[in-house]
Amino acid sequence: MKIHTLQLGELRANCFVAETGAGQCIAVDVGGNARLLYEFLSMKKLKLNKILLTHGHYDHMNGVSEIVEKTGSEVYIHENDAPMLTSSVLSLSDLISWSDFCPVSDYKIIHDGDIISDGDCNFKVMHTPGHSMGSVCYICEDVIFSGDTLFCCSIGRTTYDGGNPEMMVQSLEKLYNLEGNYKVLTGHGDNTELEYERNSNPYLRRFRK
User: Fold this and answer.
1) In a designed cystine with 119, which of 20, 47, 48, 181 is the match (CB 3.0 to 4.6 A)?
2) Tens digits of per-residue pLDDT, 141-190?
3) Which residues of 43-56 are buried (b: 16+ CB within 10 A; e: fewer)?
4) Phi, psi at residue 24, to the nearest 5°?
C-alpha cells in the first residue's frame, strides 16, 4: 500500500492518500485546501473513492465537502462524532478557525470493529475515544492511522468538549496491547512506530508490565 502525505488546512493536519489498487485510493482526513488535494489526485491519476475521518474536528474535515463535490467519494465517521460534521460549534470551528465552516451532510456511520474495504485494502476501525467521543484509528496491514489519539511521543489533548482523560487512557492501552509493531501515521506532526511509542512515549510507558 503506497501512502502519500499532504498537510492541509489552517492547522496543517496530515491528510494521507493511500493507494488501494490501480488508479484507486482513499484519503484519511481532509482538513482543508481541497483544491490542492484534487490537483494532487489529478497529477497522480488517482480516483478518490472514500474519505475516512479519524474524528470530527474541523481541522480534519473542513475540506471534505469540496472534495466530495469534485470526486463523488464516500465519507465515513464514527457515530459519536457525526454531529460535528454539520456544526461549527461542535467541530470547534467557531472556537479556533478563522475560515468559513464547510458542513458535510452526506456520510456513512462506522462503529468499532467495522471493516471498510477499498480495492485490495481493508481498513479496520478501532474506536479510541479520549480526544473526542468518536475518535477512531484505522488499521490496514502494518499501518495505524491514529488521528489525534496518538502522536510521536505525545497524545491528543482531552480538554475540548467531548474529550475524556479516562477514556484516552483506555484507548492508549488498546493501542499498546496490539500485537507486533506498526507504522503510526499521526494526525499532526511526525509519523512514528508503535514499538517506539511503547518504549519512549510517557503516556504509553505506564502500561509496561
Assistant:
1) 20
2) 999 999 999 999 999 999 999 999 999 999 999 999 999 999 999 999 99
3) eeebebbbbbbbbb
4) -115, 150
Q: Report the C-alpha gap between 47 and 129 in whole angstroms.
A: 31
Q: Are 86 and 95 in contact (CB under 8 A)?
A: no
CA pair distance 59, 80, nearest whole angstrom: 17
Cell matching residue 16: 494521507
Residue 55: all three cell numbers together: 474524528
Distance CA 146, CA 181 (A): 14
Residue 206 CB-half CA count within 13 A: 9
Answer yes or no: pTM beyond 0.90: yes
What region, left, alpha or beta, does residue 119 occupy, with left being phi > 0 and alpha being psi -120 to 50 degrees?
A: left
Point out which residues pair with 150 in neighbouring strands. 155
Rounded Cα distance between 89 and 69, Å, is: 23
Strand partners, 8: 13
